[in-house]
Amino acid sequence: MTNHWIDIRNSDVILISGSNAAENHPISFKWVTKAMENGAKLISVDPRFTRTSSRADIFAAIRSGTDIAWLGGMIKYILDNELYHKDYVRLYTNAPFILNSGFKMPGDLDGLFSGYDPKKRSYDRSTWAYAKDANGVIRKDPSMKDPMCVLQLLKKHFSRYTLDKVSTICGTPKDKLLEVYKAYATTGKADRTGTIMYAMGWTQHTVGTQNIRTMAIIQLLLGNIGMAGGGVNALRGESNVQGSTDHCLLFHILPGYLGTPSASLSSLDKYLEAKTPTTKEPYSANWWQNYPKYMASLLRAHFGQSADLATQYNWMPKLDDGQNASWLMLFDEMFNGKFTGFFAWGQNPACSGSNAGKVREALKKLDWMVNVNLFDNETGSFWRGPEMNPAEIKTEVFFLPCAMSFEKEGSITNSGRWAQWRYTAVKPPAPTDADIINELQFKVRKLYEEQGGVYPDPILNLAWDYGAKGPDGKVRHMDTHLVAKEINGYFLEDKEIRGTLYKKGDLVPSFAFLQDDGSTSSGNWLYCQSYNASGNNMARRSKSDPTGTGLYNGWSWCWPVNRRIIYNRASVDEYGKPWAPHKPVIYWSGKSWVGDVPDGGWPPLRKPDGTWNEATKLAYIMKPVGVAHIFGPGRAEGPFPEHYEPLECPIEKNLMNPQRINPVAKLFTGKMDQFLTCDDRYPLVATTYRVTEHWQTGVLTRWLPWQAEMMPANFVELSEELAKERNIKNGEAVVVSSVRGKVDAIAIVTRRFKPFTVAGSTVHQVGLPWAFGWATTKENDVKANNMAYSHPTFGDSSNLLTPSIGDANTMIPETKAFMVNVEKKA
Amino acid sequence: MSHHLIKRLSSGERFFHWLNMLAFIVLALTGLGLYSQKFFGLTGLFGGVDLSRAIHHYVGLVFIATTFIILFQFMRDYTAPGEDTLGTTIKSYLDPDFKGPPAGKFNAGQKLFGWCAFLFGVVMGITGLLMWFPSTVGRGLQQWMYFLHNFSFIVFMGFMMIHVYLGTVGVPGTWSAMSRGTVTKEWAKKNHPAWEGEEA
Amino acid sequence: MAEKFIVIDTSKCTACRGCQTACKQWNNLTAVATNNRGSYENPPDLSSSTYVKVLFHETEVDGEVKWHFGQRRCMHCADAGCIKACPVPGAITRDANGAVVINQGLCTGCKYCVFACPFDIPRYDSGNAEGAGVDRAYKCTMCFERQSMGMEPACTKTCPTGALSFAGEAKLAGIKAGAKDRGLEVYDGGPLATNVVFLLEDSPSAYGLPAKPAIPTPTYLWRTVMKPVGVVAFFAGLIALIAHYVNVGPKVAEEETGTTAPTGEGGGDSDVSSPY
């Protein structure tokens, strides 16, 4: 989230799409409700009428996988009717920037941007570039009338997204689309704000990243970013997803979103040169110029002062150039026998992985698996699951029971970037002092010490100062506070900064104090300030709200530097006056900023007399160009979003352009990566979702009687019209199948799904949750398998149906749009 | 003082009447304990409310059974033709000098009582069973069961008060029919002349 | 103590069922074995293990789908049918806060309350089947024990959206006034004066509530009319019989001994005479 949960209450219009927030983020509705009490309008756009839709003022149904189309139509509506916030767009976005003449768009190029290589299925992005003057400064047209300026190109690109075309692609009536556009575009007024609450319904597509990009463009056009009640707000699917992403959950980033080293970046210098952005834009703060400080401090946190920084960089694990080690790739490689060992740590891929049948097959190829979880699950016991013959499976599985987050002290970082310290709520059922990672680290290090090994240095030099060590050198008890302090960072030697002397061993006050010479450490520069001389800031619990806008900046701590709304310097005009004076995020007092922690303390763009302030910096400090990207050249599919159909879709051709699917999406071609589109056997569009009552694959909740009682069975929701066609009665058991697999479900025949009219023909859509799995069904022999649940559930994982294809940028699987069939269970 | 005695009730008839009577007394006392919180103290007589309720249930079964048995035993008498009417019977109780048509073994009032005792006994039995096992008739009907049980009890109780009065102090000489099975000739002649004539 | 109210604002409910679960947790109620019956709703009914149940009701008006979320739970009537029906002193009481509570220690499992409730709420459990019960009637207690410790009920405490709130009389008056401004119907049981108050977006029937809640007629006749009538009738009958005995006297048969005893006042020498 650019903003935070409480801030939703400041919105004038709330758009919930690609999310069923009422269902999956129930607490968020505390703030949605507050906003609505203050007169806010709630818009729900979803294939299905959901619990969220039940509260909405406007509900519009769209076919799964057509978000860019309907959002593109909104961009056209905003531009055609000049409803965008012109000053904001001019000051804070790249809309006035002029592009190179070589840049071509899909309208002129059969659905492709310039530079496409069909063999590699990727783009040469060199034409996606700005025109520059002799000094290398980007050419701009503040009037935004130049035909090659970003705004005009945007207008041209989305002029193709007419109401008729959008309606026929999405299957949404035109009047509904207009109603949504009209309501949301009202937030283009300077003092009105709209927010978007989205989740996996937008991201889990082959065009997931571009879905978000489209909305980001809308938010920039309407001047909603940096504002109270605005922003682009991803609702995370788990309470600490934000925290784990911040701390390098993903293969391509290190803690603090520093890039993972790759083989060709063979030295620290090369790495820093490649990663540290430069700019010729005169007033750009270009915050990432501090990259070397953050990387140096990270190396020190990992390896202490064991060697110089260059050597420590060499110890870092590196990807092969171009290597993708995302989820789909990992399981593809596992399936192909490329590696033999696997830690399933707090996860259940046999149910959560897209194309779960392939995942289950891949697990057979392993020599060993360690399953770390609260209960045994479909992953750890995959070898005795349905259609498995244990006698033929060699994989040795070790189960390590672990403590739940509520059973341990530590921090979680919520969607609003708040790092909140939590104490142990309950003790784990079995008393244990052992911390699995500590035990593992000690054993591995010992083996390297005793046996040498290929490259022992990174392991032997790993800093592991998390508590008092016993005579064997093992940390007796992991001290969570020491971990938190290491993440914040220390001074490693006495250092005088801006006239203050910091002693060796002092905690670093904030990331502005981090050094590139190895004299500071920080496990994650973004979290520098979370635990410093004023104590554990994450544990703060002040309920005061001095600004009255719900910042509560003395409650917990949020990154970066406790800034509650990021990009907040875009919430004011050139003179530092808030666009929305009744809900200011910050304002310029004449000497300094008041309110939230600003994106840098530089003065506003202009002095009170109207002259340019040479001391100023542009608002979007993380962008080398200093302004936000309406034109986004960093994305794999192109700098503007374009509608492509999902991999599996119900229509023969894309109605927007000749490319049916995302031209740069990675296609898997193995024998278990089957896809069928426009096939009579699988004529129904399907999507998956979660339910309030279960969490993720139900790996924790299916074992809880109260949860299983409320949601005891996998179900498929389908329209009354489809049910009649198929002679399916409400409550009846059915089989849902795709080319990849099938799953049992109970039919919920509902008015909340309606047939779509797409390109003149009727398209039915169905949806099903993915919260179930075979381990808690009646069919599983509980006693023999030593899996004690009290209330059986019905049906296996719906991910047996979903395809193994991912977004071209993130490789997030496309589980939200695929094709199935539904039949009565024989 | 010897009287010429006439057999009025067989030992079988007396046995079931006694059983029915005792059941009724128990039911009335236990029932009253549940009828109103004012009479709740009565449940103490039977070892508390749970036991009281259980006794009410099972004695109720005895009551229903004996009610049917009694009907079969007296069916012929209840349906026997008689010259007397309900009006003449009531008059005979209210006016000592009234000479109406002669009554048979049972006068018209007794026949009416017999039928009513059966009818309301059965209603109480059915409603009582449904109160005991309430899930069978639906909520709307079930609610009427409680009312009917109570209503029947009140009507039944009214008949019973008259019955007991006339069977004891109201018509001296009647009680021996219950206690010994016999009545005096004079009693019979006075109260049931037609029957007395047949028996003589 | 002043009266307290549970207010359920249906316009804010998202059917997350936090209340349903919080109730089970606080009251330590077991889960029922369930199936999906073509709906999100579960368990199928209130029981000794379920005091609050969220209802899902789909309708369609002019092509626009509506999904209403109601609740089945004790309404805590000021004029409570269950209390009227209960034969056991103290087994169902209404406390100063307005909580109508079945005292499990006194309840005898007679089921009178089960059928006397205008909202069909109390559930009898014989204790034979799965569930928490042992031959008693069960329903929501409005968490009277939490209230006695100064805490609000578990359900209102849990509700994330403010759909459920716990209010005193003054706050309730404000909520009611505000609800009317927002076009919501205030449903407070009418003559029953319930301490659970719904704010409805649609007709009561869309939320599984009776349009005109009242104590059932047979229950009213039974507990309110018949009870005094019975007592009066009993004593009236007794007096009538005594009057008969005194004024008309027993009907004494003539003696066989020949002397004709006068009928009427006489008969004092009969061996089966009056007790005098």
- Based on CA atoms alone, the radius of gyration of chain C comes out at 28 Å
Main sheet attributes: strand count, strand direction, barrel closure of chain A:
6 strands, mixed
The total strand number of chain A stands at 29
What sequence of helices (H) and strands (E) makes up the elements of chain C? EHEEHEEHEEHHEHEEH
Strand proportion of chain A? 5-15%
**Per CATH, which architecture of the largest domain in chain C?**
2-Layer Sandwich
Helix content of chain A: 10-25%
Strand pairing plus helix content of chain A: what structural class?
Answer: alpha/beta
| Strand order in space, largest sheet of chain C | 8-1-10-9
Task: Count helical runs of chain A.
Answer: 22
What is the structural class of chain C? alpha+beta
Radius of gyration of chain A from CA coordinates: 27 Å
| General shape of chain C | elongated
What does this entry look like structurally?
The complex is a heterotrimer of chains A (826), B (200) and C (276). By secondary structure, chain A is of the alpha/beta class. Chain A is built from 22 helices and 29 strands. In chain B, strands 1-2 form a two-stranded antiparallel ribbon. In chain B, helix 4 (108-132) runs antiparallel to helix 5 (139-170) and helix 7 packs across helix 8. The model of chain B has no long low-confidence stretch (mean pLDDT 86). Chain C is α+β, with helices and mostly antiparallel strands. Chain C has a four-stranded mixed beta sheet. A two-stranded antiparallel ribbon of chain C has the order 2-3. At the B-C interface, helix 1, helix 2, helix 3, helix 5 and helix 7 of B face helix 3 and helix 7 of C.
